Amino acid sequence: MKKWPPLLITLSLLSIFLGVYVGSVHISVAEVSESIVYGIKSALSGLFPPISPGEQPKYFTIIWKLRLPRVLLAYLVGTALASAGVASQALFKNPLADPYIIGISAGAGIGGALGAIYWPEHMGPLAFIFSLISVFIVYNVAKVNGKIPVDTLLLAGIAYGFLANAVTWYLIISHEDRAHVTWMWLMGTFNGRGWDDVAVMFIVTLLGLLFLILKWRELNLLLLGEESIALGLDLHLYRKLVIGTIALLTAFSVATAGIIGFIGLVSPHIMRLTLGPNHRELTPATALFGGTLLVIADLLARTVASPRELPVGIITAIMGAPLFMYLLLKHKRGELLA
Amino acid sequence: MNLDVSLSFSYGKRRVLDGVEFSAKKGELLAIIGPNGAGKSTLLKCMVGILEGEGKVNLNGKDLMVMKPGERAKLITYVPQSSLPEFAFTIEEFVEMGTYATKGSVEDALKRVGLWERRKEPITFLSGGEYQLVLIARALAQGSDVILLDEPTSHLDVNHALLVMDLLNELKEEKIIVAVLHDLNLALSYADRLLILHRGKKVWEGKPRELEPAVLEEVYGIKANLVEVSGRRLLIAGLSKV
After folding, report:
1. How far A17 CA lies from chain B's nearest CA (Å)?
2. What residues in A contact B76, CB-CB < 8 Å?
3. Residue B122 sits in which domain range?
4. What is the rounded distance in angstroms from the CA atom of residue A257 to the CA atom of residue A214?
5. Residue A308 — very low, low, confident or very high, per pLDDT cuts 50/70/90?
6. A68-332 maps to which CATH number?
7. Out of A230, A276, A277, whose CB is closest to B73?
8. B-contacting residues of A 76-105, CB under 8 Å?
9. What order do you get walking across the sheet with B2-11 strand by strand?
10. What interface predicted TM-score (ipTM) does this complex get?
């Protein structure tokens, strides 16, 4: 699998194009392209006045204002969640770790719900604070003699996730006027998101992902636990930095699109089976693949029950949960070596 | 090259290492022995900075204790007790992991342990003995002056155990080698000097041929006989109460 970068980039672009192309209003490929070209031209004409966008195409609003930001946002959130998954697995030295399963997403949910109810413009930072607290709690509860065994990790994560969900639901139910909006957000959706959300998510994902990609050696070393100190890793510093990155990526994903599970588990796992565990390839490949997966999941969420829209979290759970159970079975039999 | 160590360590109130002092130098294989729970692994972990001990670890007069992990790993490294690998890195990727490993040092290290031809194989398919050799190669590729090894021959069959000990015997001419050994007979036949730990304290230090059965009886609580076979000292132990 030497040719994975062009392959995964092609898949990404294809999924994004498909995401923009498919929708309740049928729009031809030519018209989709026309609207995108017009959008790019008008964006550029602000910077370079000689570029003139010409006449606005018929479906410009649907393509440029509704579908494209939504699809790009799904891609960015998928990328962020998949990267957070890879980082969690290195941090916890455990291929089953994922921000969703170990309760980090649920923790971020408290912050997001507080934001949705009281300070809608601060959902991201609030979710970030709560997800930091959550990683810290789960990490310390799950730790046994400096190691994080699968069983204590899952138990600590599940217990903490329940607690966090209970708090979130209490917040939602006790604020009836905002309950429906908050609930729709929490279940995971990209409906009604615009270019502002894309910009924030782009910056956060870029920062987090760049750090994880540049620090691939350190992520490999994290898998060795305390032994890595003897190989020159400042383990305590990097544990903190990676915890911060996971919290950042998870928090802004949750604040933007609610709680979407399993992307952080499924993408790294499939990539590890195809490319191996070395983070030099694993992190960028997982990021590209995670984005593609979530764009497709969102496409399904919009179309399977059309004209109704399902929360995308339901689609990822239906795709991811059976895989997770299969992984647990393999782990139990000691076959989980990838 | 000279390593001077003087270390204490406590887990909460429990004193695990109590003022253990010794020196090690190039050209001599130092083996640390002692019963389970004597503090052998703790001693190595303190020396390499995994645990924060009190005292000093001086290499050629430089204090390793005050260095950052990145700086320290250039001078001293460690081969941990072998546990099964969970992630399927290839042999080469695994040996490359150290901060100071280079393409050249990885190739040299893998050739030295005889695994260069198999470098693309995943470590998860190796036998216990082969994996131990990979762990040693990973430490070698760091190019540090000191290598500490924690029970490098446990779980190995006699062939691999001797292979590892012969390798250490060669390496001691280039580096300072300190190994915690479980197998007293391997320690007696290969080590140039023995250090015996018991309940966190150094109770004996010297050449294998100077060791008296009484010391082993006291430390291990066994009836020990030391016999000489073709120039080597060997232990014959019985479980009858001392």
Report:
1. 35
2. 230
3. 85-143
4. 27
5. confident
6. 1.10.3470.10
7. A230
8. 93, 95
9. B14-25, B2-11, B54-59, B62-63
10. 0.91
